[in-house]
Design a protein that fits this description.
The protein is mainly beta. Helices cover about 10% and strands about 45% of the residues.
Length: about 190
């Protein structure tokens, strides 16, 4: 998920520090409803521009991520491109960060190339077949990206969440955005748990 591709990984919230995932709980599924995307503004010398990413209604209750994003520069060495991710659940007094759902300054290309929870579905939504990390300068499209909820571990709490994605060139912020979503735990029969 380059800024444009990452826009979208609200499920990255369950990518833990050591890439350990829990098995799905029998009879339980999740319904993730995307609620909004908020790109950072006023970043000096950004790598990605994601202002054209939008939520598109695909049925009565769900949205998919669609739109164009631009890779403005490709001069960051792979080892210097880092990603941080934080998740915060909405409580009565505002959003509270979860210590268990975060990544701090991880090598983005390692995640892009090896992670198996989020990125395979995201890669299928991008309009380029030879998309590498870091990507070449250019314009790309994401079409109908919907997170694969079958891979969410059973211990993810329900509710409204804010997922913050930040990308760095070493310690300099080069892209960022927030994704808002509602996570609903359901039984296989379709009702809320």
């Amino acid at each position: 998920m380059h800024c444009g591709t990452a826009v979208l990984s609200i499920l990255l919230a369950i990518l833990f520090e050591n890439n350990v995932y829990l098995a799905a709980m029998p009879g339980i599924t999740y319904n993730v409803k995307l609620k909004g995307i908020e790109p950072y503004e006023d970043i000096k010398d950004p790598v990605w521009l994601i202002t054209e990413m939008k939520l598109k209604k695909i049925n009565k209750t769900h949205f998919a991520i669609n739109g164009l994003y631009s890779v403005l520069r490709d001069n960051i060495p792979t080892d210097d491109l880092l990603m941080s991710f934080h998740a915060a659940q909405k409580k009565s007094n505002g959003y509270q960060e979860s210590a268990l759902i975060q990544l701090i300054n991880k090598n983005y290309c390692d995640l892009w190339n090896n992670e198996q929870l989020i990125f395979p579905t995201l890669k299928k939504s991008i309009n380029a077949t030879d998309y590498k990390c870091p990507p070449a300068k250019g314009h790309y499209a994401i079409t109908n990206y919907i997170p694969d909820t079958s891979k969410i571990p059973p211990n993810v709490p329900e509710g409204l969440w804010k997922y913050t994605f930040e990308y760095f060139q070493k310690d300099k912020l080069v892209c960022g955005y927030k994704v808002y979503a509602e996570v609903i735990k359901e039984s296989i029969t379709g009702g809320a748990v």
